[in-house]
Amino acid sequence: MNFFERQRQVRRVSARLVGLFVVAVAGIVAVVALAAVVVFDGASMPPAQLAGLLTVTSLLTVAVIGLAALFRTVTLRGGGGRVARELGGVLVPPDTTDPQLRRLRNVVEEIAIASGVPVPEIYLLPHEEGINAFAAGWSTSDAAIAVTRGTLERLNRDELQGVIAHEFSHVVNGDMRLNIRLMGLLFGILFLAVIGRGLLRTGFVSGGRSRGDNKGGNPLPLIGLAMVAAGYIGVLVGRLIKASVSRQREYLADASAVQFTRQTAGLAGALKKIGGLPAGSKLANPKSEEVGHMLFGSGAGLSALFATHPPLPERIKALDPSFDPAELAALTRRWAAAPPSGLAEDRAMGLTGSNSTGNGALPDADARVRVDPAEVLDRIGAAPPASYPHAADLLARIPSELLDQAHRPDTVVPLILGLLLSADQQVRARQHAEIFERHGKALADATWQAGHATAGLHPLLRLPLAEVAFPALTHRPPAERDAVADAMATLVRADGRISVFEYCLSRLVGDELRESLTPSSRSGNGRGTLRGARRAVGTLFSVLAQAGHPDPAAAQRAFAAGTAQTLPQSDIRFSAPANGVLELESAWPELDGLRPAEKARLVAGAVAVISHDGVMTVPEIELLRTICLILHSPLPPLPVPA
Q1: Are strands 90-91 and 121-125 parallel, antiparallel or unpaired?
Q2: 3-state SS class at 340
Q3: At the N or C end, where does the chain have fewer CB atoms within 10 A?
Q4: Packing angle between helix 220-261 and helix 157-173, nearest 10 degrees?
Q5: How large a percentage of the chain has pLDDT more than 70?
Q6: Spatial distance between the Cα atoms of 161 and 157, rounded to a whole number of angstroms
Q7: Interatomic CA distance for residues 447 and 490, integer angstroms
Q8: What is residue 205's predicted lDDT score, i.e. its pLDDT?
Q9: CA–centroid distance for 420 within its chain
């Protein structure tokens, strides 16, 4: 199952989730309506009056559930970090020097680069001794990864990699968007029980004070009891929904993590430590049940019927067929006296530091690589086994001073702007003057210096550096993030001669900033078709064809190769873009709103345009990866032989 098929599956599961929610609400409405009939003696009412009672009761119940679900969903628009903070999460600073937190950040950054997505926010749950983690957010732009203190202290680097790779499977495949939507819907159901408990308390208090004067009795306790019953029926249904949605995805995420890290021992070891340590994977925070379906391990002991995760021995055995469940008892006895220490195990196993030293030569910047469009599509959202060590190697090759600037909120803005400065000195001087005029001398000079520092950076390292910088960039004040977007637009329009890659990088960072400011529940995948977006498709392919082929005849052939892949029966023709890359501004919304299957054909066509002769240069590969990110279809780094 490739990335686009998984996106279609997530949409089907979302539709099923909404259907189950509607069924649950209908059942709750029926219970509340029946209670209203009993309380208000509906059996003796005229039919018209009874119908009015049932209508009003049903509408009020639906309104309460709907408004509560909407309220909760709106509060979650703050993104994955909002969920982590509600559970007591503390943000891990990008420039942390704590050994455990530095190891965590290194692992997250390596896996993010290997996945082809921006580095997410990282949170620590400092008061949780159990081994657990989760990913939350609406998209990769506002995603957050949270781990418990137990995960940091008990797991070695291989095990931590397995857990984080498992969570990244949820990030890349859209599971976390479904998870956060589920939180909002189930809150609406539970809220009815909260109101019911309030009515019970109010009813008993007021009933005790005025019983002598109220000949008809106080109906509030009965109404409250009915709403509590209906609410908890909804809670049980909600748990069933969470269980049905979550279990199979955990097996898939385990399998993805193994494929990602190229070994089963790490993930299996983490699961064994959950089974062998007293704290297991349990969370002490009372809100943990609300995020139970998001967690790496079960956060609470639920019966098999309501369990959001497969049984632990079954998950371990799927990874290690030789596993005997009796091993867990032996591990429990061994660790009772001396609990495992992740950092100590790292030292014993030689796992300290990064996975790579960055030795060896990078390929020439103009190296050409033979590519297969079908292979590129298979890589989107599904990093092959070699991606993780390749990503670690890329990170190790980025100069440490640039990584330090990418991690620091006070230096990240000029660094990102410096990546966009032109190699042409006259253009660069004009860009400096524009930044000076609009944003002041300090930013203009810092951008100029960062441009010099990044001028010799290999093309394969520029996009990873931007992905590492993203967390520090999003932690600048909102007004400053708007200024960054404006400054990037200034650089792009300085003279109209900016390269396609520089334009796409600026567009990517701008999109990520906007989405981090206003996280949206809407997926990048919409319901658009290629036929309906053929003008936007023609614009994208024309820009790519013109950028890679100065000869008009070669550009036309490249354009034709793309349309043959994407719209073989279409009448669209190559047309040299009058405004160059800026023509793409009007095309992105339509292209990003395509259905998953249609978007897959679009990416295949883009590959065909860029590599119509069967090969790609290194800058063209990174351009393709940037375009895929703009389209919310992350493409991991492609291997380029040195």
Answers
A1: antiparallel
A2: coil
A3: C
A4: 120
A5: 89
A6: 6
A7: 13
A8: 52
A9: 26
Q: How confident is the model over 290-305, as a mean pLDDT?
A: 75
CA distance 587 to 455: 30
Residue in 110, 128, 167, 583 annotated catalytic: 167
Q: What is the token pair recorded at 252?
A: 């898939």
Strand partners, 616: 369
Question: What span, in angstroms and rounded, lies between the C-alpha atoms of 458 and 365?
Answer: 7
Give me 376's structure tokens: 């590129």
The predicted-structure confidence for 594-636, as pLDDT tens digits, reads as follows 988 888 899 989 999 988 877 788 888 888 888 888 888 888 8
* DSSP 8-state assignment for residue 71: H
* Cβ-proximal residues to 365 (8 Å cutoff; 6+ apart), any chain: 458, 459, 618, 619
Structure letter (DSSP) for residue 636: P
Q: Cβ(140)–Cβ(471) under 8 Å? A: no
Long-range contacts of 550-558 (CB under 8 A, 24+ apart): 552/576, 557/612, 558/608, 558/609, 558/610, 558/612
In the block, residue with structure tokens 């405004």: 579
Q: Give the type of residue at 324.
A: D
Which stretches of 126-156 are DSSP H helices?
149-154
Q: What is the pLDDT of residues 482-541, one digit of tens each?
A: 888 888 888 877 766 667 777 788 888 888 888 877 776 454 557 889 999 999 999 999
Q: Which two tokens stand for residue 365?
A: 């910047």
- Tell me the three state secondary structure of residue 617: strand
Output the pTM of the full model. Answer: 0.84
- Residue 153 falls in the annotated catalytic set: no
